[in-house]
Amino acid sequence: MIAVDDLIALIHNYNPGCNQDLVRRAWAYGEAMHEGQFRHSGEPYFTHPVAVAAILTEMRLDDATLVTALLHDTIEDTKSTYSEVERLFGTEIVELVDGVTKLTNLQLSSSEAKQAENFRKLLIAMSRDLRVILVKLADRLHNMRTIRSMRPEKQAQKARETMDIYAPLAGRMGMQWMREELEDLSFRVLNPEARNSILRRFITLQREAGDVVHRISNDIRSELDRAAVEADVYGRAKKPYSIWRKMQEKDLAFSRLSDIYGFRIITGDVAECYKVLGIMHQRWRAVPGRFKDYISQPKSNGYRSIHTTVSGRDGKRVEIQIRTREMHEVAEAGVAAHWAYRDGARSENPFAVDPARWVATLTEGLQNEEDHGAFLEHVKLEMYSDQVFCFSPKGDVIQLPRGATPLDFAYAIHTRIGDKCVSAKVDGLRVPLWTRLRNGQSVVIITAEGQRPQASWIDLVVTGRAKSAIRRSLRDEDRERFVRLGTELLRAAFAAIGREMSAKAIATAARMLGIGSENELRAQVGAAEISARKVVGALYPEGVPVEPEVDATRPVMGLAADQSFRRAACCQPLPGERIVGITYRGKGVVAHSMDCEALAEFDEQPDRWIELRWQDGTHPPVYEVMLELTISNDAGVLGRACSLIGEHKANISDLRFLDRKPDFFLLRVMVQLRGVSHLHQVMTALEAETAVAQIARVRDPSQRP
């Protein structure tokens, strides 16, 4: 652990006017509060807050942020209190500490509903003061650097959470260096074999070809010197995770990857950036489709740079980024540039975009979003998306994710424009609504009164904002139909127990079930989100007969006392399906579904058939069924699918991968269920998951008894 004087020296390097007394008091207080606490590695716990503060000094942050780092675990993990920290260090710091504490308590990898709610809290905390997320990101970075001392299962959980949430968030905040390090640290935990393989290949490549980075850097410097351009040149091999991701996306072996090296040229001004671009393209052949000008069209997080890829020495593809020194500072610091100090004064960087603008865009229209899946989809789309830039008729630039359509453009202008959109003109030509927009196109949206969003539009848009607005409109349109259907279902359920449905009874049931209103309850019943039986049971539990629990050892009727029973593996029949028993010598009775192909071979043996039916009542979830899923090869998809199965009270007893491709996985999952209605619930939930492309029940005729 570095000493307090060393920490102050780090701060003093960029902010000579720092409040040394404040830092020393925070150090002493934090050290006293954490006295006797230790990390998993055995080190004193206070080494962690100090390390977090040291990371933030690399970003040249202000005193309040550094003090927050020293105190960020005191309210949560020690006897310290909010009021005491406020009394000792002031309102600004205690609010920052409290914000970090609340972020720490968020379980961002929990069930979908809980995760959505915690994402909301995360965004709210960010919108109040972005320094909270800077401290949290530094906290996560140090925890990932020291993760080896944790239990393996805890390492995997933290690494997945980092890969899914914190790494893309760091990138979205413009802190690309932190994103790359978080991704690579997570990659080391989640797939150490792949990472080590890439590192070994790098070593082999360097041994065979020498120091490629040094040679190419010298080539670039020679060209710049010849043109009398003063610029700094930096080169590096890309991170293992970045390389592995590209290998997976393009389904290429390491030996076939060409652009595994990246170079940055830092110039004095914008004019020199374009001059350097010309020099590079004159000396080496540019790779088509690999040029991006983020200087004339900056990213929404303030990032500006020119990206190009050329065929360099020995035909190797080389990625080159060209930017000014000011742009480089923004690219390295991201949103931290807003609080960075230089020579004791706050940096005023003309290229730093207000990051609160992105947070406001991210949260716009979501405050009343009740669909947890839609909310998470919106947030993650916005965090991961690349950008295209299109122009409105007035010349305004509209930023959209890559792959966006005119519908996305319409909803980006205003929800009302999107809802009424009937067609669009792109560069003066009328195009279908599913057309993918490209950079620099001019878009005119054509609207009509009476037009309403169509269900098919969900598949045409890519922005979270558009998907959320379309779903909300469709939900409102369906609501009246669901209310009518729910009313009839409730009337029948009340009549079945000899009761009369009344508005007061429905209002009381809604209150007891925690549903906002009487109409909402009717709508949920009509949409099959809650059963009419459950509503009646909430009011008259004695009137609704309780189904008996069925004994798993005798689940069917029709067997003699001495006959044993088992389900056929070929068709895996479930309670609720029609079944027939076939006697096997020495094996007892085997139950098949009535539509099982195996029954054909017993057509001439009627003496072996036994009439069976499932016992009435609630069966335990012990009946295995094989499901075949095709899912997107994306981070967290398999976890979400497994969580959905668990949320529906079903257990996974086996899971096997049949095929792995760069864009999808094909797998078979053995699930334990209560019956056919339980199977329908699980399959419906999985079909609704965006990343699940296909799902089917598998019956294997080769598994005949």
From TrEMBL:
<protein>
    <recommendedName>
        <fullName>GTP pyrophosphokinase rsh</fullName>
        <ecNumber>2.7.6.5</ecNumber>
    </recommendedName>
</protein>
<dbReference type="InterPro" id="IPR045865">
    <property type="entry name" value="ACT-like_dom_sf"/>
</dbReference>
<dbReference type="InterPro" id="IPR004811">
    <property type="entry name" value="RelA/Spo_fam"/>
</dbReference>
<comment type="function">
    <text>In eubacteria ppGpp (guanosine 3'-diphosphate 5'-diphosphate) is a mediator of the stringent response that coordinates a variety of cellular activities in response to changes in nutritional abundance.</text>
</comment>
<dbReference type="Pfam" id="PF04607">
    <property type="entry name" value="RelA_SpoT"/>
</dbReference>
<dbReference type="InterPro" id="IPR007685">
    <property type="entry name" value="RelA_SpoT"/>
</dbReference>
<dbReference type="InterPro" id="IPR045600">
    <property type="entry name" value="RelA/SpoT_AH_RIS"/>
</dbReference>
<dbReference type="Pfam" id="PF13328">
    <property type="entry name" value="HD_4"/>
</dbReference>
<comment type="similarity">
    <text>Belongs to the relA/spoT family.</text>
</comment>
<dbReference type="InterPro" id="IPR006674">
    <property type="entry name" value="HD_domain"/>
</dbReference>
<dbReference type="Pfam" id="PF02824">
    <property type="entry name" value="TGS"/>
</dbReference>
<dbReference type="InterPro" id="IPR012675">
    <property type="entry name" value="Beta-grasp_dom_sf"/>
</dbReference>
<dbReference type="Pfam" id="PF19296">
    <property type="entry name" value="RelA_AH_RIS"/>
</dbReference>
<feature type="domain" description="ACT">
    <location>
        <begin position="626"/>
        <end position="700"/>
    </location>
</feature>
<dbReference type="InterPro" id="IPR043519">
    <property type="entry name" value="NT_sf"/>
</dbReference>
<dbReference type="InterPro" id="IPR004095">
    <property type="entry name" value="TGS"/>
</dbReference>
<dbReference type="Pfam" id="PF13291">
    <property type="entry name" value="ACT_4"/>
</dbReference>
<dbReference type="InterPro" id="IPR002912">
    <property type="entry name" value="ACT_dom"/>
</dbReference>
<feature type="domain" description="TGS">
    <location>
        <begin position="382"/>
        <end position="447"/>
    </location>
</feature>
<dbReference type="InterPro" id="IPR033655">
    <property type="entry name" value="TGS_RelA/SpoT"/>
</dbReference>
<feature type="domain" description="HD">
    <location>
        <begin position="45"/>
        <end position="144"/>
    </location>
</feature>
<dbReference type="InterPro" id="IPR012676">
    <property type="entry name" value="TGS-like"/>
</dbReference>
<dbReference type="InterPro" id="IPR003607">
    <property type="entry name" value="HD/PDEase_dom"/>
</dbReference>
